[in-house]
Write a structure and sequence with these properties.
The chain is of the alpha+beta class. 25% of the residues lie in helices and 26% in strands.
Length: 248
């Protein structure tokens, strides 16, 4: 596997769309590759920004969340949220590299990923090409941020080992490798978290990826997600009183 980060010019809200950004900075993509894009650049290009000072961040975070927990005043100034069935901080709302704006997640990340994949296939004449839209997240009981995929298109997100034998011949019963988040973590590490100015990356040499020529089906997307009642961490997730987000 090879990851190539791509440096871009500084991109500000209202200047250009995501397709012109791709066209400007990517000359060629090989067959069976995946383009990784930070959610921040997608959102900036889609106009999903709010001028800092126009609304309090707390209100904006709660509006953008599906579920949220109020922050602990004596410890952290972060609101724990669930958005698009992803546990994250502050609904993904962030001001870093926003040039005076709060940057939100794309309105419909999956739709954006699907459209970008179609654009890549047409422009670069590709049969097999994937897209991952990423963000950064914190991990429970771990310090430091890592990547996560908030949407993907063009390949299977999970690799099942169910029914296959391990090295001693024992059949595996439940193991499935999370391909999409593993790729996102690797790419985000290479793209950086600060002023690297590399919001795009191309992952190639992906012999272990199963590409597909259409968008992820509803069944495939549902298989990647786990609801709180069936999650390993149910005892933690259901022990608190989540508040419903959205516009009030």
């Amino acid at each position: 596997m090879k990851i190539l980060p791509i440096k871009t010019r500084k991109i500000r809200a209202g200047e250009e769309n995501i397709y012109s950004v791709i066209s400007r900075h990517i000359r060629n993509i090989k067959e069976n590759s995946i383009l990784v894009i930070t959610s921040k650049i997608v959102s900036i290009c889609e106009g999903r920004v709010v001028k800092i000072g126009k609304i309090k961040k707390k209100e904006l975070v709660e509006r953008e969340a599906d579920l949220y927990l109020p922050p602990q005043k004596d410890r952290f100034h972060v609101t724990l949220t669930v958005k698009n069935n992803i546990l994250c901080s502050s609904s993904g709302v962030d001001e870093s590299n926003g040039d005076g704006f709060w940057v939100l997640w794309p309105e419909n990340p999956q739709k954006s990923a699907n459209n970008i994949r179609k654009y890549l296939a047409k422009k670069y004449k590709l049969k097999n090409v994937g897209v991952i839209i990423t963000d950064s997240k914190s991990n429970i009981l771990r310090r430091g941020a890592s990547g996560i995929a908030i949407a993907h298109s063009g390949f299977l997100s999970l690799k099942s080992y169910v029914g296959k034998k391990d090295i001693f011949g024992r059949k595996m019963k439940v193991t499935k490798a999370n391909v999409v988040d593993s790729l996102a973590i690797s790419a985000v590490l290479v793209m950086g978290e600060g002023a690297e100015q590399t919001p795009l990356a191309i992952i190639s040499n992906l012999d272990f990826i199963k590409f597909k020529k259409n968008n992820p089906t509803k069944k495939e997307l549902a298989e990647l997600q786990v609801d709180m009642d069936n999650d390993y961490f149910k005892v933690l997730l259901k022990s608190v009183e989540w508040k419903k987000g959205g516009k009030k």
